């Protein structure tokens, strides 16, 4: 059994998968530092970029299952980032209003 040829698209796919995997490393490191489970904002950016690149790879391969999964996940990642940044803008606009923290994050 021969190994598959590594062309530019396969390298692109591996790079995309590496970025997507990087989100777990970011989350793990942040949780270890705080000694509790946390999801840092960087997790959502790694998720967004990784899933978008994986969608592009799946589109190139015309894998509809993979495209649908990554495409729908991308919507969730964008929505989480909108919620995070909206919460931060409200805090800057009115510091008297306490920020809405996810249940797994401590408020300082």
What is the gist of this entry?
This protein has 108 residues and is mostly helical.
Q: Can you put this structure into words, describing what you see?
A:
The protein is mostly helical. The chain has helices at 8-34, 41-61, 64-93. The termini are far apart.
Q: Please give the share of residues in helix.
A: over 70%
Q: Estimate the global geometry from the Cα principal axes.
A: elongated
Task: Compute the number of structural domains.
Answer: 1
* Biggest sheet architecture: none
Separation, N- and C-terminal Cα atoms: 57 Å
Please describe the structure with a list of short key phrases separated by commas or semicolons:
108 residues; mainly alpha; elongated
Give the topology:
Elements lengths: L7 H27 L6 H21 L2 H30 L15
Helix pairs in contact: 1-2, 2-3
């Amino acid at each position: 059994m021969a190994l598959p040829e590594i062309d530019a698209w396969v390298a692109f796919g591996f790079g995309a998968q590496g970025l997507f995997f990087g989100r777990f490393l970011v989350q793990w490191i942040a949780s270890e530092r705080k000694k509790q489970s946390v999801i840092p904002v960087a997790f959502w950016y790694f998720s967004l970029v990784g899933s978008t690149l994986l969608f592009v790879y799946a589109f190139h391969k015309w894998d509809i299952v993979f495209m649908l999964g990554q495409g729908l996940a991308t919507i969730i990642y964008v929505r989480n980032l909108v919620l995070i940044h909206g919460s931060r803008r409200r805090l800057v606009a009115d510091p008297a209003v306490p920020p809405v923290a996810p249940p797994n994050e401590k408020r300082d």
